[in-house]
Amino acid sequence: MSTFSAKLIRWQKLHGRNNLPWQNTRDPYAIWVSEIMLQQTQVTTVIPYYLRFLQRFPNIGSLAAGTVDEVLALWSGLGYYSRGRNLHRAARLIAEDQEGIFPRDLEVIQQLPGVGRSTAAAIAVFAYGERSAILDGNVKRVFARCFGVDGYPGERKNEILLWRKAEELLPEKSEKSRIEIYTQALMDLGATVCTRGKPKCMACPLQQDCIALRDDRVDRLPAPRPHRPLPEKETILLMLMKQGKVLLGKRPATGIWGGLWCLPEMPVSEDAIAYCTRHFGMTVEPLAHMPPLDHTFTHFRLRIHPRPLQVVSYPAAIKTPWQDEAMWITLDDALKAAIPAPVRKLILRHGHPQSGQLPFEKQL
Asked: How far apart are CA 85 and CA 100, in angstroms?
């Protein structure tokens, strides 16, 4: 076994995380769900979502038999909702093509919707003990610092180099039984010690080998993503209230908040009251003013202007021009539905003006 992997394995046994809800199991389904949720999301945020998700969908069959609305309702607030939609779609594919049995072959796993090379490797390692390399964001940071890799890790040439390192540093085949410990060690080291800010270098088992530490470049490696100012957009979300209920519409499957229930949206250039009359056939009156809410997506920033309105009269059937389905729903029931985090925050503000975000909610 290489010195690199030996040091990590020793460190993991003493200092790593060993009691997370998805550990100490060989169930590929449970491991798969955790790995998808952990994509771009911290462990502490994932844990309550993971526990609730497995309580409702304990296996592939139950997930495949469920609806995407049920999945997204449990995902609400976790962000990156395409992960939930892909999880549901993959479960149905496994039920149809694999007789409900999670695949063992690494290439087949990687072909599942929402599963990339690193995620597939992690599932294969933890479920089947396969000798496969991972390279998530935390691992890229560990390697970039330890081996002094200049430049942004996401650049093609650097990614190729880092994958080569990840493959070379795997424990030998004779040490196959240790691959799970080594893989978890890499994840834990990046998450708890070799962190983006304020890394704990003196607690790192690789400190004697780390080029970044030796050259006093820890704060400069890895290089950040090349800065590109995020474009800024604005929109109005209508909070249409009648008899204690709010109007929600289902977003199209593609685009932001795809498949989620959302407040009706309108351009900032138009008057909300006139818009409701023209598009919904409603007569409305303004309610108390609510301040704007800013929300950052991966590729742009969105300033949301909420417009709370009391519905005075309305047609029997609501047909929105931008959504396939619409429903009147109580605020309490809306909070249980598959809604995006900003809509959840606005509903909470409307019902409880002093309240902040729900427990476990994380905007992404």
From this structure: 18
